[in-house]
Amino acid sequence: MTIMTKCIIFAVAAVAWGLTCHAQTPADSTTVEETDTTTWSIMLDGVTVKAQQQLIKQEVDRLAYDVQADQDSKTQTVMDMLRKVPMVTVDGEDNILVKGNQSYKIYKNGHYDPMLSKNAKDVLKAMPASAIKRIEVVTDPGAREDAEGVNAILNIVMMDNKRMGGVTGTVRAAYNTLNWKSLGTYLATQLGKAVVSIDYGYSDMGEKVTKNTQYRERTIVNTGNRQIIDSEGCNPGQVHFADINASLDIDTLNLLSASFGGYFYKMDVLGGGLISMFDASGNEMYHYSEQYWMPSYSHHSWNGRMDYEHKMRRSGERLTLSYMLALTRQHTEQETNYSNMENFPFNYNGFLHHVNECFTEHTYQIDYVRPLWEGHKLEVGTKYIDRRNNSENTQRFYDDVFTTTSDAFDHSMQITAAYIDYLWSHAKWSARAGLRYEHSFMKGHYPDGKSADFDKHLNDWVPQASVKYQIDDRQSLKLVYTTSINRPGITYLNPAVSSYPMSVQFGNPNLGSTRSHSIGLPYMYVGQHLTLQLWPQYKFTNNALSNIIYADGDTRYLTYDNVLRQRRWQVESYIQWKPFDNTTFIANLNFSSNLYENQEQQLKQHCTSLNYYLYAAQMLPWKLQLSGYIFGQLGNSSQDVYTYNEPWNSYAFTLQRSFLSEDRLTVSLLACAPFHKDMHFKTRTTQGDILASDDYVNAQNGRYFRLSLSFRFGKLKSSVKKTDTTITNDDLQGGITRGK
Known about the structure:
- By secondary structure, the protein is mainly beta.
- The protein has two domains: 3-50, no CATH class; 56-733, TonB-dependent receptor, beta-barrel domain (Maltoporin, Chain A, Beta Barrel), CATH 2.40.170.20.
- It has a 31-stranded mixed beta sheet that branches.
- It starts with a helix and ends in a 7-residue tail after the last strand.
């Protein structure tokens, strides 16, 4: 507390003490509790000095956003809440960035959740924020997770780990004017020593909400020829997700927890457009119309895990045994026909493209935590992963002889890892240092015998360290160093060739792991009315996985390689200001300056951008809450040496009110971009063999109005318990296990 605050409190206390002495009434005991997140108060014979409740808490390795303390959580989704979380940005197409990039994983209750990590867009837009306790951004994971390819972890904590009595549940429904419907329910109960929760969600997306249009121009540098693509499409369908969690208190020292979840969607993708090619003088060379549809486009993923935790007699000492199974199956069958052909340069008029991709992973892990003496703790563990991918890719071209091409590829990886983490704290200081070793064996096999099998051994040492100084009760400063690795997924590795008119795509089986380093100096201030966080950071990578785009004649080729050199300066900042009891302002900002370089192609690109989210909320009479926000990007952003994204912005207003006893029914009306029918996202390709400009419009990001209802029943006293540690696998990049 500041000196002025202390003086005010002392003066109020003195007056209250004088009044109570004059009335000869003994004063109540005084209790002051000061933390980063809880409201503190002084009770003196009816006099209460109360500070605003803080939404943010900082620990040595993470930031936490208190979702339940946010009134918007009653009717909004987890995706809506993410826009308010420090270190997190959500762009106009609902792509989530953590600490300014896509290298992160999503946990639920401290567990790696493959369903959320693979399908974050759809699941988090359907998941109600009312079922979430808090959202944590693990800014510098310890050696236990650090080698797994993440710069950060997004941990969604469902509820407190307390005992439950009775049944609680929530039913929710939403509808918007673009014909998007969502239904869901959450139910939790206790059966003897077991606590069980079930979460189910369903979304129905019609043609209107999934409609998109695109206008693209491409210029081939070597020939000067220019291609124009004017297309539109939609992907109506249904999305289902479900999650079952259970825990069993065997006794006071032993806990068994398990979960099983799944995600499934099936969509009817269809679209088409007109493609034209002009020579350098502007004369038309050819044109044709394209129509495509995917009558069997489906994806489903399942994951289950089990954790056994044994607590020792020594306080804080525990042993955890974990197992996790992850399955993903993706089936794509696309039929494409060409018509209105004038000088069409190929000898076929359509094709059928069939792709099957399967991912199976078994993980076994042991974790042991032991406090050594006061202020010192040791964490050690080991992990084994058996990961298998297989893919079948077939194209049948409709020509005179019905030409068929087929490729099959199997890829397996065995990873053995061990880690040690040391934690220390004393007075205002706390620190963490760790080291992880990983050995991975990769093997590629071609069932059709078209290529020779290959294998590769990789060894990685991954250190990390952080130190925190608590300047005073409100201010803290940290120094953080992290390293991480990424391994290529089957999409990047699969050498199967997919051919289309004017484009060819294939993977690279010779890819290796990527190593990145970062150093940051975050500062945090948590006051009664103001919360401020500043995190300057520098990150560099010398062998990042990258797209490789080149042209042969007028044909565009796309593959992958470990050739990207990246340098990133960024400053994450978060401001929460509560000038009055019923007024809140939030600013979540990410400024970054990125340099990308591909030395093989001698290409370099530098982009500077600011991602922003500005929010204001005001409580009105009759229990109404009015809020508004604007978010977007200033400057240009990029992820490679070829293309950058131009500035964009969006905005929305929300009016909500709660009804019935204990505010069990909440109704919310949202207006998104009411003054703009369409939202445009533009990209420019300014380097390489092919120059391009794209104007993309998605109906989901334009004008719509949404009505949301949420009803809570029963009494919530607890939710499913979780072991303190469990399995996390976060290393894949560019596979069907990463759907972001």
